[in-house]
Specification:
Strand order of the largest sheet: 3-4-5-6
Mean pLDDT: 86
Helix content: 25-40%
Order of helices and strands: HEEHEEHEEHEHHHEHEHEEHH
Largest sheet: 4 strands, mixed
Radius of gyration: 23 Å
Strand content: 5-15%
Protein backbone atom coordinates (compact mmCIF):
# COMPACT_ATOMS: atom_id res chain seq x y z
CA UNK A 1 0.00 0.00 0.00
CA UNK A 2 1.42 3.38 -1.04
CA UNK A 3 0.88 6.07 1.56
CA UNK A 4 -1.05 9.23 0.76
CA UNK A 5 2.12 11.27 1.25
CA UNK A 6 4.08 9.15 -1.23
CA UNK A 7 1.22 9.27 -3.76
CA UNK A 8 1.31 13.06 -3.57
CA UNK A 9 5.08 13.02 -4.06
CA UNK A 10 4.82 10.63 -7.01
CA UNK A 11 2.03 12.64 -8.62
CA UNK A 12 3.93 15.91 -8.32
CA UNK A 13 7.02 14.25 -9.76
CA UNK A 14 5.03 12.84 -12.68
CA UNK A 15 3.59 16.28 -13.41
CA UNK A 16 7.04 17.86 -13.36
CA UNK A 17 8.45 15.13 -15.61
CA UNK A 18 5.56 15.59 -18.04
CA UNK A 19 6.20 19.34 -18.11
CA UNK A 20 9.86 18.73 -18.96
CA UNK A 21 8.96 16.31 -21.72
CA UNK A 22 6.33 18.70 -23.10
CA UNK A 23 8.87 21.54 -23.14
CA UNK A 24 11.10 19.45 -25.40
CA UNK A 25 8.18 18.73 -27.74
CA UNK A 26 7.33 22.40 -28.08
CA UNK A 27 11.00 23.29 -28.63
CA UNK A 28 11.28 20.78 -31.48
CA UNK A 29 8.04 21.64 -33.27
CA UNK A 30 8.52 22.38 -36.99
CA UNK A 31 12.26 21.64 -36.93
CA UNK A 32 12.63 17.88 -36.63
CA UNK A 33 13.57 15.00 -38.88
CA UNK A 34 11.29 11.98 -39.10
CA UNK A 35 12.22 8.32 -39.32
CA UNK A 36 9.99 5.24 -39.31
CA UNK A 37 9.73 3.04 -36.21
CA UNK A 38 7.40 0.69 -38.06
CA UNK A 39 5.36 0.73 -41.22
CA UNK A 40 2.94 3.32 -39.89
CA UNK A 41 4.79 4.42 -36.74
CA UNK A 42 6.88 7.57 -36.90
CA UNK A 43 9.48 8.67 -34.42
CA UNK A 44 11.20 12.05 -34.27
CA UNK A 45 14.01 13.69 -32.41
CA UNK A 46 11.23 15.20 -30.35
CA UNK A 47 10.10 11.76 -29.10
CA UNK A 48 13.65 10.86 -28.17
CA UNK A 49 14.45 14.19 -26.57
CA UNK A 50 11.24 14.18 -24.55
CA UNK A 51 11.90 10.67 -23.26
CA UNK A 52 15.48 11.49 -22.30
CA UNK A 53 14.36 14.55 -20.36
CA UNK A 54 11.77 12.50 -18.48
CA UNK A 55 14.12 9.57 -17.90
CA UNK A 56 16.92 11.79 -16.57
CA UNK A 57 14.51 13.53 -14.19
CA UNK A 58 13.26 10.26 -12.71
CA UNK A 59 16.79 8.82 -12.52
CA UNK A 60 17.84 11.75 -10.37
CA UNK A 61 14.66 11.92 -8.31
CA UNK A 62 14.12 8.18 -7.79
CA UNK A 63 17.40 6.34 -8.55
CA UNK A 64 16.03 2.99 -7.33
CA UNK A 65 13.01 3.07 -9.66
CA UNK A 66 12.83 1.32 -13.02
CA UNK A 67 11.99 3.12 -16.26
CA UNK A 68 10.05 1.63 -19.19
CA UNK A 69 9.98 3.98 -22.18
CA UNK A 70 8.22 3.85 -25.53
CA UNK A 71 11.27 4.86 -27.55
CA UNK A 72 14.91 4.04 -26.71
CA UNK A 73 15.11 0.89 -24.61
CA UNK A 74 17.28 1.69 -21.58
CA UNK A 75 15.39 -0.38 -19.01
CA UNK A 76 13.40 -3.61 -18.87
CA UNK A 77 11.47 -4.58 -22.00
CA UNK A 78 8.41 -5.41 -19.94
CA UNK A 79 7.04 -5.18 -16.43
CA UNK A 80 8.35 -7.96 -14.23
CA UNK A 81 6.52 -9.37 -11.17
CA UNK A 82 8.07 -8.04 -8.00
CA UNK A 83 9.96 -5.28 -9.82
CA UNK A 84 10.72 -2.01 -8.03
CA UNK A 85 8.37 0.93 -8.74
CA UNK A 86 8.41 1.38 -12.51
CA UNK A 87 7.70 4.54 -14.50
CA UNK A 88 5.94 3.79 -17.79
CA UNK A 89 6.34 6.59 -20.32
CA UNK A 90 5.13 7.47 -23.78
CA UNK A 91 6.97 10.76 -24.36
CA UNK A 92 4.90 11.66 -27.44
CA UNK A 93 1.57 9.91 -27.69
CA UNK A 94 0.29 10.93 -31.12
CA UNK A 95 3.48 11.33 -33.16
CA UNK A 96 1.66 11.33 -36.50
CA UNK A 97 -0.56 14.21 -35.37
CA UNK A 98 2.48 16.05 -34.02
CA UNK A 99 4.39 15.62 -37.29
CA UNK A 100 1.46 17.00 -39.29
CA UNK A 101 0.87 19.89 -36.86
CA UNK A 102 -2.46 18.50 -35.68
CA UNK A 103 -2.87 19.61 -32.02
CA UNK A 104 -3.90 16.20 -30.70
CA UNK A 105 -0.90 14.69 -28.92
CA UNK A 106 0.30 14.39 -25.35
CA UNK A 107 2.89 13.16 -22.88
CA UNK A 108 1.68 10.06 -20.99
CA UNK A 109 3.26 8.87 -17.74
CA UNK A 110 2.23 6.13 -15.34
CA UNK A 111 3.74 4.59 -12.22
CA UNK A 112 3.28 0.95 -11.27
CA UNK A 113 3.97 -0.11 -7.71
CA UNK A 114 3.59 -3.74 -6.56
CA UNK A 115 1.65 -4.62 -9.69
CA UNK A 116 -0.84 -1.75 -9.41
CA UNK A 117 -0.97 1.46 -11.40
CA UNK A 118 -1.00 4.17 -8.74
CA UNK A 119 -0.28 7.36 -10.70
CA UNK A 120 -1.22 8.46 -14.19
CA UNK A 121 -0.59 11.80 -15.88
CA UNK A 122 -1.57 12.87 -19.39
CA UNK A 123 -0.37 16.34 -20.38
CA UNK A 124 -1.50 18.10 -23.57
CA UNK A 125 1.10 20.73 -24.54
CA UNK A 126 -0.97 22.16 -27.40
CA UNK A 127 -3.59 23.42 -24.92
CA UNK A 128 -1.06 25.00 -22.60
CA UNK A 129 -1.68 22.49 -19.82
CA UNK A 130 1.08 22.53 -17.25
CA UNK A 131 0.27 19.53 -15.09
CA UNK A 132 0.08 21.68 -11.95
CA UNK A 133 -2.40 24.54 -12.12
CA UNK A 134 -4.22 23.24 -15.18
CA UNK A 135 -6.96 20.65 -15.38
CA UNK A 136 -5.10 17.79 -13.67
CA UNK A 137 -6.58 15.54 -12.40
CA UNK A 138 -9.89 16.67 -13.96
CA UNK A 139 -10.71 18.72 -17.03
CA UNK A 140 -11.84 22.28 -16.47
CA UNK A 141 -11.79 23.51 -20.06
CA UNK A 142 -14.90 21.65 -21.30
CA UNK A 143 -18.60 21.93 -20.67
CA UNK A 144 -20.97 18.98 -21.03
CA UNK A 145 -24.69 18.43 -21.41
CA UNK A 146 -24.89 18.50 -17.63
CA UNK A 147 -23.92 22.19 -17.83
CA UNK A 148 -27.12 22.76 -19.81
CA UNK A 149 -29.43 20.32 -18.04
CA UNK A 150 -28.78 21.49 -14.47
CA UNK A 151 -29.68 25.18 -14.92
CA UNK A 152 -32.79 24.16 -16.89
CA UNK A 153 -33.88 21.80 -14.07
CA UNK A 154 -33.91 18.85 -16.46
CA UNK A 155 -33.24 15.66 -14.48
CA UNK A 156 -30.44 13.36 -15.62
CA UNK A 157 -28.45 10.31 -14.54
CA UNK A 158 -25.21 8.68 -15.65
CA UNK A 159 -25.24 4.93 -14.97
CA UNK A 160 -21.66 3.65 -15.10
CA UNK A 161 -19.17 1.29 -13.45
CA UNK A 162 -17.87 2.48 -10.11
CA UNK A 163 -14.57 4.34 -9.87
CA UNK A 164 -13.86 3.15 -6.33
CA UNK A 165 -11.38 0.53 -5.15
CA UNK A 166 -9.73 -1.51 -7.88
CA UNK A 167 -12.48 -1.02 -10.46
CA UNK A 168 -10.39 0.01 -13.45
CA UNK A 169 -13.48 -0.27 -15.63
CA UNK A 170 -15.03 2.75 -13.95
CA UNK A 171 -11.79 4.69 -13.96
CA UNK A 172 -11.58 4.35 -17.73
CA UNK A 173 -15.24 4.49 -18.71
CA UNK A 174 -16.98 6.76 -16.21
CA UNK A 175 -16.34 9.92 -18.20
CA UNK A 176 -17.79 12.36 -15.68
CA UNK A 177 -14.99 11.27 -13.35
CA UNK A 178 -12.70 13.44 -15.50
CA UNK A 179 -14.91 16.57 -15.52
CA UNK A 180 -14.02 18.72 -12.52
CA UNK A 181 -17.39 20.45 -12.19
CA UNK A 182 -19.10 17.06 -11.90
CA UNK A 183 -16.47 15.09 -9.98
CA UNK A 184 -16.14 17.70 -7.26
CA UNK A 185 -19.75 18.89 -7.22
CA UNK A 186 -23.18 17.81 -6.07
CA UNK A 187 -23.89 15.95 -9.32
CA UNK A 188 -21.26 13.30 -8.53
CA UNK A 189 -23.23 11.92 -5.58
CA UNK A 190 -26.73 12.61 -6.94
CA UNK A 191 -26.53 11.94 -10.69
CA UNK A 192 -23.64 9.52 -11.27
CA UNK A 193 -24.93 6.08 -10.31
CA UNK A 194 -23.19 2.70 -9.93
CA UNK A 195 -23.45 -0.11 -10.82
CA UNK A 196 -24.91 0.45 -14.30
CA UNK A 197 -27.48 -2.32 -13.73
CA UNK A 198 -29.27 0.10 -11.36
CA UNK A 199 -31.03 1.43 -14.44
CA UNK A 200 -32.94 -1.86 -14.75
CA UNK A 201 -34.75 -1.26 -11.45
CA UNK A 202 -35.11 2.50 -11.99
CA UNK A 203 -36.69 1.94 -15.40
CA UNK A 204 -39.00 -0.84 -14.22
CA UNK A 205 -40.30 1.35 -11.42
CA UNK A 206 -40.79 4.41 -13.64
CA UNK A 207 -38.06 6.41 -11.87
CA UNK A 208 -35.95 7.25 -14.91
CA UNK A 209 -34.83 10.88 -15.17
CA UNK A 210 -35.44 12.91 -18.32
CA UNK A 211 -31.99 12.14 -19.75
CA UNK A 212 -29.97 9.00 -18.99
CA UNK A 213 -26.59 7.68 -20.08
CA UNK A 214 -25.93 3.96 -19.61
CA UNK A 215 -22.32 2.71 -19.69
CA UNK A 216 -21.94 -1.09 -19.49
CA UNK A 217 -19.51 -3.21 -17.55
CA UNK A 218 -16.62 -4.47 -19.69
CA UNK A 219 -18.06 -7.98 -19.87
CA UNK A 220 -21.34 -6.64 -21.22
CA UNK A 221 -19.80 -4.12 -23.60
CA UNK A 222 -19.82 -6.18 -26.81
CA UNK A 223 -16.10 -5.57 -27.37
CA UNK A 224 -14.22 -8.08 -29.47
CA UNK A 225 -11.85 -10.16 -27.42
CA UNK A 226 -13.96 -10.17 -24.26
CA UNK A 227 -14.85 -13.82 -24.82
CA UNK A 228 -18.43 -13.30 -23.66
CA UNK A 229 -21.79 -13.03 -25.37
CA UNK A 230 -23.50 -10.82 -22.77
CA UNK A 231 -23.61 -7.66 -24.89
CA UNK A 232 -26.83 -8.19 -26.87
CA UNK A 233 -28.65 -9.45 -23.77
CA UNK A 234 -27.51 -6.43 -21.77
CA UNK A 235 -28.92 -4.06 -24.38
CA UNK A 236 -32.14 -6.11 -24.58
CA UNK A 237 -32.54 -6.02 -20.80
CA UNK A 238 -32.22 -2.24 -20.67
CA UNK A 239 -34.61 -1.77 -23.60
CA UNK A 240 -37.12 -4.22 -22.12
CA UNK A 241 -37.00 -2.54 -18.73
CA UNK A 242 -37.83 0.81 -20.33
CA UNK A 243 -40.31 -0.58 -22.85
CA UNK A 244 -42.33 -2.42 -20.22
CA UNK A 245 -42.47 0.62 -17.93
CA UNK A 246 -44.67 3.69 -17.77
CA UNK A 247 -41.88 5.68 -19.46
CA UNK A 248 -42.20 3.92 -22.82
CA UNK A 249 -44.72 6.33 -24.39
CA UNK A 250 -42.36 9.30 -24.00
CA UNK A 251 -38.96 7.68 -24.54
CA UNK A 252 -36.32 7.53 -27.25
CA UNK A 253 -33.54 4.98 -26.72
CA UNK A 254 -30.31 5.51 -28.66
CA UNK A 255 -28.13 2.39 -28.77
CA UNK A 256 -24.69 3.55 -29.78
CA UNK A 257 -21.26 1.94 -30.06
CA UNK A 258 -18.34 4.20 -29.16
CA UNK A 259 -15.96 2.79 -31.77
CA UNK A 260 -15.97 0.67 -34.89
CA UNK A 261 -14.36 -2.40 -33.34
CA UNK A 262 -11.31 -2.33 -35.57
CA UNK A 263 -13.23 -3.74 -38.53
CA UNK A 264 -12.72 -2.54 -42.08
CA UNK A 265 -14.83 0.38 -43.31
CA UNK A 266 -14.91 1.06 -47.04
CA UNK A 267 -16.26 4.61 -46.63
CA UNK A 268 -13.61 7.32 -46.09
CA UNK A 269 -14.91 9.55 -43.28
CA UNK A 270 -15.57 13.22 -44.03
CA UNK A 271 -12.91 15.50 -42.55
CA UNK A 272 -14.99 18.27 -40.99
CA UNK A 273 -12.20 19.49 -38.71
CA UNK A 274 -8.82 18.33 -37.41
CA UNK A 275 -10.54 15.67 -35.28
CA UNK A 276 -12.29 13.92 -38.14
CA UNK A 277 -15.04 12.49 -38.44
CA UNK A 278 -13.86 8.96 -37.82
CA UNK A 279 -14.96 5.52 -38.97
CA UNK A 280 -18.67 4.76 -38.97
CA UNK A 281 -20.26 3.19 -35.90
CA UNK A 282 -23.64 1.47 -35.54
CA UNK A 283 -26.59 3.39 -34.10
CA UNK A 284 -30.06 1.96 -33.39
CA UNK A 285 -32.94 4.17 -32.29
CA UNK A 286 -35.85 2.57 -30.45
CA UNK A 287 -39.00 4.54 -29.69
CA UNK A 288 -42.80 4.34 -30.06
CA UNK A 289 -42.37 7.18 -32.55
CA UNK A 290 -39.38 5.87 -34.50
CA UNK A 291 -40.09 5.52 -38.23
CA UNK A 292 -40.63 1.83 -38.86
CA UNK A 293 -37.97 -0.01 -40.90
CA UNK A 294 -36.28 3.29 -41.63
CA UNK A 295 -32.57 3.48 -42.48
CA UNK A 296 -31.21 7.00 -42.37
CA UNK A 297 -28.46 8.02 -44.79
CA UNK A 298 -27.72 11.25 -42.95
CA UNK A 299 -24.14 11.77 -41.80
CA UNK A 300 -24.70 11.89 -38.05
CA UNK A 301 -22.01 12.26 -35.42
CA UNK A 302 -21.96 12.04 -31.63
CA UNK A 303 -22.94 15.71 -31.50
CA UNK A 304 -26.19 14.77 -33.29
CA UNK A 305 -27.50 13.19 -30.10
CA UNK A 306 -26.46 16.21 -28.07
CA UNK A 307 -28.29 18.44 -30.54
CA UNK A 308 -31.45 16.34 -30.28
CA UNK A 309 -31.42 16.64 -26.50
CA UNK A 310 -30.99 20.40 -26.86
CA UNK A 311 -33.99 20.53 -29.21
CA UNK A 312 -36.23 18.41 -27.00
CA UNK A 313 -35.57 20.45 -23.86
CA UNK A 314 -35.12 23.87 -25.55
CA UNK A 315 -31.48 24.20 -24.49
CA UNK A 316 -28.91 26.46 -26.08
CA UNK A 317 -25.81 25.02 -27.83
CA UNK A 318 -22.84 24.03 -25.69
CA UNK A 319 -20.50 26.46 -27.42
CA UNK A 320 -22.71 29.35 -26.28
CA UNK A 321 -21.52 28.77 -22.70
CA UNK A 322 -18.14 30.16 -23.74
CA UNK A 323 -15.99 27.44 -22.18
CA UNK A 324 -13.52 25.60 -24.41
CA UNK A 325 -13.90 24.79 -28.08
CA UNK A 326 -14.41 21.92 -30.47
CA UNK A 327 -18.09 21.29 -29.73
CA UNK A 328 -19.95 19.68 -32.63
CA UNK A 329 -23.60 19.99 -31.57
CA UNK A 330 -24.19 23.23 -33.51
CA UNK A 331 -22.95 21.88 -36.84
CA UNK A 332 -24.31 18.33 -36.41
CA UNK A 333 -27.49 17.04 -38.02
CA UNK A 334 -30.04 16.21 -35.33
CA UNK A 335 -31.43 12.67 -35.18
CA UNK A 336 -34.95 14.16 -35.15
CA UNK A 337 -35.61 13.04 -38.73
CA UNK A 338 -35.80 9.39 -37.65
CA UNK A 339 -39.00 10.09 -35.70
CA UNK A 340 -42.60 10.63 -36.79
CA UNK A 341 -44.29 12.35 -33.89
CA UNK A 342 -47.59 12.50 -35.77
CA UNK A 343 -47.95 8.74 -35.84
CA UNK A 344 -49.75 6.79 -33.14
CA UNK A 345 -47.37 5.53 -30.49
CA UNK A 346 -46.58 1.88 -31.12
CA UNK A 347 -46.97 -0.69 -28.35
CA UNK A 348 -43.74 -2.15 -27.04
CA UNK A 349 -42.78 -5.68 -28.04
CA UNK A 350 -40.29 -7.32 -25.65
CA UNK A 351 -36.97 -8.46 -27.10
CA UNK A 352 -35.94 -12.07 -26.51
CA UNK A 353 -32.46 -12.55 -25.07
CA UNK A 354 -30.15 -15.27 -23.80
CA UNK A 355 -29.69 -13.66 -20.38
CA UNK A 356 -32.49 -11.95 -18.48
CA UNK A 357 -32.67 -8.94 -16.21
CA UNK A 358 -31.97 -10.98 -13.07
CA UNK A 359 -28.65 -12.13 -14.57
CA UNK A 360 -27.36 -8.57 -14.81
CA UNK A 361 -28.79 -7.47 -11.46
CA UNK A 362 -26.76 -10.20 -9.73
CA UNK A 363 -23.66 -9.96 -11.93
CA UNK A 364 -20.41 -9.09 -10.17
CA UNK A 365 -18.48 -6.17 -11.69
CA UNK A 366 -15.58 -7.30 -13.87
CA UNK A 367 -13.51 -4.30 -12.71
CA UNK A 368 -11.83 -4.33 -16.08
CA UNK A 369 -11.50 -1.58 -18.69
CA UNK A 370 -12.90 -2.86 -22.00
CA UNK A 371 -10.49 -1.10 -24.32
CA UNK A 372 -7.76 0.52 -22.25
CA UNK A 373 -4.95 0.31 -24.76
Amino acid sequence: MVSKEMLTQYREAACEAARRGAAVLEEWRHRFQVREKGRFDLVTEADLGSQRAIRDFFAQRFPDHHFLGEEERTGPARLEPGAPPTWIVDPLDGTTNYVHDCPLYCVSIGLQVAGELVVGVVLDPSRQENGGTGPFPCFTQFDTLASLLDPANVSWAYYAPSVTGRDNGGRVWSEFDSISAIRHGRDWTHNVISPPSTILNDAASGRLPAVSWVIPDAGDSDHTGEGRDDGPSWVSSVVNAVGESSNWSSTAIVVLWDDWGGWYDNAPPPQLDYRGLGERVPCIIISPYARKSFVSHTDYEFGSIVKFVEEVFALRPLESLGVGSGYTDSRAYSISNVFDFNQKARAFQPIASTYDRAYFLTEKPSQQPPDDN
